[in-house]
Amino acid sequence: MKTSKEPLLLYVHIPKTGGTSFTQAIVEHCPKAVYYFQVADKPDLLRQTLKKADALCGHLPFGLHHTTTRPCQYVTMLRDPVDQIASFFYFKYKNKNYPDNYNPYLTFEEFLNNSYFDPEYVNVQTRFLSGELGSTSPNLNLAIRNLEQHISFAGITELYAESQFLFMKIMGWEPKVYSKINANENRPPKTELTSDMIDLILLKNASDVELYYLARQLLLKKIYALPHASREEFRLYKRNCCWQGEDELGYY
Q1: I want to staple 30 with a disulfide (CB 3.0 to 4.6 A). Which of 55, 235, 239, 246 is the partner?
Q2: Number of domains in the chain
Q3: Does residue 155 lie within any of the structural domains?
């Protein structure tokens, strides 16, 4: 059990990056984990949580460490912005499990060009890591600085097995395979998006694109730096995965 003098794990769960699945490992290893939505609008409860919890998980922006004297450890996941935006659309508007938003007639093109798109979806990843959730033009340099200097681990959705494995190794936990949760199986593949759709997403999310590729590069460096024994351990780990990500490296 952690004390108030030990680091508080802050999981910045950026929406539609695979975070619901990633949270499983944290909750299993941190018995005093709290979900951010339970305390976000309750200042007194949030302060108590920052003192007593061993982990805080959810759609929380970077910056909560400024509100506590306790040491904090940030982790997060990032995703290819094109896939993330498509996931937003199909999960929110084409998912019958959410009848309040379900709209069988709304097209992806209409979604991208609607006036509400920018304030709700543009550069969401940069917003979370810069701590500027309300801005569609967040400070990319600040987000990069936070990523490089204050985020102890940033996984990549497209390298999910690698991310889970490395995260648990960094935390000193025995690597365990956790299944993906909240995945929208009905979502068409990225290859079905037109070049115009992709270009518009990339244009509107230029900050997220740069941030994503930096985070991906940093993760790949960690993967390449694995000692031989850990590489062998990862081979066995990935064999047990019921899903497969990219084989980015030749020895996987």
Answers
A1: 55
A2: 1
A3: yes
Considering the entire predicted model, what is its pTM? 0.90
- Structural domain contains residue 216: yes
Among candidate residues 18, 9, 17, 59, the one with its CA nearest the CA of residue 179: 18
Rounded Cα gap, residues 206 and 126, in angstroms: 10
Q: What is the DSSP letter of 114?
A: S
Q: Tell me: the pLDDT tens digits for 126-156?
A: 999 999 999 999 999 999 999 999 999 999 9
Domain containing residue 217: CATH number: 3.40.50.300
CB count within 10 Å of CB 232 equals 12
Residue 85 near residue 205 (C-beta atoms within 8 A): yes
Q: Which candidate, 16, 17, 9, places its Cα nearest to that of 36?
A: 9
- The Cα diameter of the chain in Å comes to 53
Q: Judge whether 149 lies within some domain.
A: yes
